[in-house]
Amino acid sequence: MKILIIRHGEPDYSIDSLTEKGWREAEYLSEMLVKQLKDKTEHGEVHFYMSPYGRAQDTASPTLRKLGCTAEVLPWLREFDVFIDRPDDLTRKRIPWDWVPEDWVQDSRLFLANHWFENERMAAGNVGDEYRKVADQFDALIARHGYRREESLYRVERPNHDVIVLFCHFGVESVLLSHIWGVSPMPVWHGFCAQPSSVTTIVTEERREGIASLRMLSFGDISHLYEHDEEPSFAARFCECYGDDTRHD
């Protein structure tokens, strides 16, 4: 089985949709996905799922239209918008991965899979509980498709070559990846950048009958943008140098 995790195109958060550039990204993405998925039914089925948020659904719409498919809306695929008090700014609550690095790296627990949620700010925001809800829902979805999680691996109940396509958001994508790998989400949130409209590809590997692991083939692929000479969006990033006239916070 293959899982595609797709981040929405460049967002217009004010209307929970896409910018003009974001719509182009969604169109170029759809061209790639149609090529990749249109003949997949010869070997397996393709199942589409998407976040309830408009920017993810709008990103999915060109692909679904061209393939004549529909997508099931999964509430837990929404952005992981759980909020905390950030140490350097108590004027408003922030999403849990929006810390400046010099603050969060001071707590060694945040690097540890079994302890990151014990950080006082994470605990006050019930971030660990919300993380577990998403992880459990993901495992339930994978079980629907024939792979039931046991410990850190998956028991194969119905081996298949199906493709699961998830249109969602960077925050929740990082939650899913950290759960799959069994690591803290903090290094994933801070160390990886899935740019708008990017595709992360994961496959099952069943090296011994009945036992599968999930392995990532590619992270944050935006080759569909380069194919059209479309500059990747800066929406996911922060300034490269402090003096740059780009996003600092």
Itemize the secondary structure elements and their pairings.
Blueprint: E1 2-7, E2 11-12, E3 17-18, H1 20-37, E4 46-50, H2 54-67, E5 72-73, E6 84-86, E7 89-94, H3 101-104, H4 120-124, H5 127-144, E8 147-150, E9 153-156, E10 163-168, H6 170-181, H7 185-191, E11 199-208, E12 211-221, H8 223-226
Parallel strand pairs: 1-10, 4-5, 4-10
Antiparallel strand pairs: 1-11, 2-3, 6-7, 8-9, 9-12, 11-12
Helix pairs in contact: 1-2, 5-6
Give a written overview of the molecule.
With 249 residues, this protein is α/β, with parallel strands linked by helices. The protein has one domain: Phosphoglycerate mutase-like (Rossmann fold), CATH 3.40.50. The chain is 33% helix and 24% strand. An eight-stranded mixed β-sheet has the order 5-4-10-1-11-12-9-8, with helices on both faces. Strands 2-3 form a two-stranded antiparallel ribbon. Helix 5 (127-144) crosses helix 6. The longest helix is centred in the N-terminal third of the chain and has 18 residues, at 20-37. The chain is globular.
